[in-house]
Write a structure and sequence with these properties.
Chain lengths: 258, 349
Amino acid sequence: MTTLLEAKDVSRSFGGVKALAGCSLSVDKGSITGLIGPNGSGKTTLFNVMTGYVKPEKGTVSFDGHDVTNARPNKIFALGVGRTFQLTRIFARISVIENMLVATQRDESWLRGLTRSKSSKSELDAAMEWLDFVGLSRLASLQAGSLSYGQRKLLELAYVLVADPDVILLDEPAGGVNLTLINEISEKILALNKGGKTFLIVEHNMEFVMKICDKVTVMHQGCDLVTGTPAEVRANPAVLDAYLGSIDDEFDEEDVSA
Amino acid sequence: MSKVKPSFWGLGLAALAVFPLIVTNPTYTSIGVFALLFMACATSWNMFSGYSGYVSLGSAIFYGCGAYTMALVSTHVHMAGGAAQFWLVPLGGLVAMVVAVPVGAIALRVRRHTFVVITIALFFVFQLLAINASFTGGAAGISLPLIPWLFNYYNLPFYYVALGMVIFATVLSALVRRSRFGLQLLAIRDDEDRALGLGVRVTAVKLTGFTMSAFTIGMAGALYAMFIGQIYPQFVFEPNFDITVALMAFLGGFGTLLGPLLGGLILESSQQYLTLSFSNGSLYLILFGVLFLLVILFMPQGIVPAVSKWWVGRGEKRARESQAGTAVSTASTMKANPTVDHAPAGAKP
């Protein structure tokens, strides 16, 4: 497998706190990579570095052969890296469909935006298609702020998808949503992955991670502690010590291999 | 409500167009000119600040630049006072746009509340420059060429040029709202960082919006200077202008198309009328205070969103009542004639 997105030896501090201390992570093309670790281990900071929201003090980030270490978020998005946030970030005062349309042209000249309408027919169709995929098409004309938390998660996923990024970074997609919706989200991720999309997922729900990820990286105190298959990670004593604790019955071999 | 909109706009435009033909008293047509100037300014201000959420309190910079462009050019080229001066109105807008580029490039480096403070600070820089620079005539101001028009008809050309400006600002604002650029401004208003992460070039979009909004405000300043015939730094680089324009948009409905027009019409015409009607020139401030308290208490989103919400609610209530009425009438019919088959067509017995 070829590496699509890679962070090498990345460091970043906030005041006296070292959020990332020489962390490395690689995401293979067509894979679903999980990123786990205790709170404050630097997962979201690494996400922010990889998507241009935070500049690293040291290290490099590359995407598909391009060095994107200090690139701005819009540039990285235009290259094909989409992301969601831990706390959903939608455009609350515009409609659901308008939220989708914001993302439809990922590499458009800003001057062109002045002279054209909000969307072409093909963009509108694509937006409706993805809304349909996440089950929100009937709410297209509603103000996005009126959606429930779970619906907002789905909308955020949909508007990242409409831009057709090559790799999608999901920050806690199962956080704060009910079990039915978690299953729905994991099914959608697996379906998209089958279609060729690459995912990097930060998640605390171990069942979710172990079920859908091909590879898992565990972070601890700003460093990548271990990388391996879900089964390898789960059995690693350092991971048990730093994050998972004792082996929980719910992660039995059958569940993992399924 | 959307169905009545075109006719509503047409009616509003017709009313504004015939106003000076019906009300010929120069006092009232003069109020009309000021109201239209502020409606254009508030609409233009709202096109950037209302859509992007960046509340600028430095619009008087552009108003002043437009006014000084009119005054300086018409005096330096020894232009005869009259209709030819109207050609300088777009020039005032263009100069304001040119000034808006560095002003925006500085102010838009920061966000929200800091942006507001920076625009105020930049405004005072320009006011001080106007007072102290030699080419502006300093505190003594500049007298423009006298326009030799008959007193009774003096206001009419200004009124219609200002009306044209209102139409221009409204059409431009509507086009922006419907464009991808407008959508990007709205996305910036809701979550700038998220918009950036979805490919929106936020810096370029904000600066373009800021510069575009300066154009009409600059034109309004130029027309104001020509209308008054004498400008002073403290009257065109006037802090009250910034606050008034913002309040007009908030009163009518921040971020809406109709709101700033309505706010401008209500506030400016009432202010002018009250100032002229009462010897105490500050009375309008007390009445404005009361008006704003009422608006904040009863319709904090502004007049247009509040009325729109009420209108939609009224329609829904009527629909519910009509449904309930149909149900009651069906039930009473069934009670009166139980043999009548009320099963829906096609339903099995």
